[in-house]
Amino acid sequence: MIGYATETAPMGASFEDLIAEGAAVPVEGWDFSWFDGRATEQRPSWGYARLVADRMAGATAALDVQTGGGEVLATVPKPPALLVATDSWRPNVLVAARTLRPLGASVVEVTDEPALPFRDDSFDLVVSRHPVRTLWTELARVLRPGGTFLSQQIGAGTNRELSEAMLGPLSPPDPDFPQKLAAQAEAAGFTVLDVRAETLRAEYFDVAAVTYFLRKVVWTVPGFTAERFLPQLREVHERIQREGAFVSHARRVLIEARVRKDDRRGVE
Predict the structure, then answer these.
(1) Is residue 9 part of a domain?
(2) What are phi and psi of 5, to 5 degrees?
(3) pLDDT tens for residues 196-241?
(4) What is the separation, in whole angstroms, between the first and last Cα of the chain?
(5) Is residue 7 part of a domain?
(6) Is residue 177 part of a domain?
(7) C-alpha–C-alpha distance, residues 194 and 191, integer Å
(8) pTM for the full model?
(9) CATH number of domain containing 83
């Protein structure tokens, strides 16, 4: 998700300056290039963007659910004839519309309601990176029989170290999250083709990067603002000064599933 660079913030930057910097960066879209030189995160071995490009090359009608700013779709070298993306946050929709215009993609603003605004059997491929919620019944409905869903999901307990640095001790994450995800897919009429999970090391080299990340990836610390969590951020800042980085671990799950013909049914 975030960059590979390993440089730290400018020497001598004060805690207050770093907090102000991290609190001022725009959070629209899913472009994480600001983190270059400020934070690193390992990438999953499966290469999600490469998989999306491969599946898109064989599709005729594709949908990207919760596209963010359209960053993944923008890398697709051979888009299908019909390409649609959705997002529920207006700033993301505007960014995605600009980003995906060269591909001829349509960007649709949706609500947080469970129904997708598309007819049955509209797509032969649906993709989604880091969805907040996976609507299996709706995915089965809008996919054609034999159609494929490919998704990289946020695993249970992702960036737990960051969450606990702000919130204190948390309940243990669900170790069976990938298996439960697969079971939900099967219950909705999918055949699971692949499900994998990986834990990825993440390092934050200054508290501005921590502040920006927590503002951008809102599920890490719900309700986060720099003002509300200033004492905890100061502790993180002091730890980075002592140790050189704040280390956390992201968790990702890849799932690919195909709709079984004439076997689509509801699942909670």
Answers:
(1) no
(2) -65, 155
(3) 999 999 999 999 999 999 999 999 999 999 999 999 999 999 999 9
(4) 29
(5) no
(6) yes
(7) 9
(8) 0.90
(9) 3.40.50.150
